[in-house]
Write a structure and sequence with these properties.
The chain is an alpha+beta fold. The chain folds into two domains: 78 residues, Nucleic acid-binding proteins (OB fold (Dihydrolipoamide Acetyltransferase, E2P)); 31 residues. The chain is built from one helix and five strands. The chain is elongated, with a radius of gyration of 21 Å.
């Protein structure tokens, strides 16, 4: 996944299948985006919307948009998950788990 946030115009949207194509600079292929990758929408996407997104390259070599939002429509900006954030969540989970185990053992000891 690229941490870079790109911007483009929605050139095509298939409302029945919930996907579309984001246009890039001339000479570059359009980017596929699925509706599930558009976060916190207050309305459905429309052709011409300005989409900000990140990209991933699939095994097939195709590039797909992820973590997208529509300028002026989405409630929040995309959250870029970094390795640090993932590690922090894991450490927090482990600390909470260890605390619960310690409390349970303390209660068993006192009873």
């Amino acid at each position: 996944m690229s941490d870079t946030v790109f911007t483009g115009k929605l050139r095509q949207w298939n409302k029945d299948k919930d996907f579309g194509l984001i246009g890039q600079k001339k000479g570059q292929p359009d980017i596929f985006i699925h509706g599930l990758e558009l976060k916190d929408l207050s309305r459905k996407p429309r052709v011409g919307d300005t989409i900000s997104y990140q990209t991933i390259t699939l095994k097939s070599g195709h590039v797909q948009a992820i973590n997208g939002y529509i300028k002026g429509v989405s409630a929040s900006q995309p959250i870029v998950k970094t390795q640090y954030q993932s590690a922090l969540k894991l450490v927090t989970f482990i600390a909470i788990f260890v605390s619960i185990v310690a409390i349970v053992n303390l209660i068993k000891y006192l009873i």
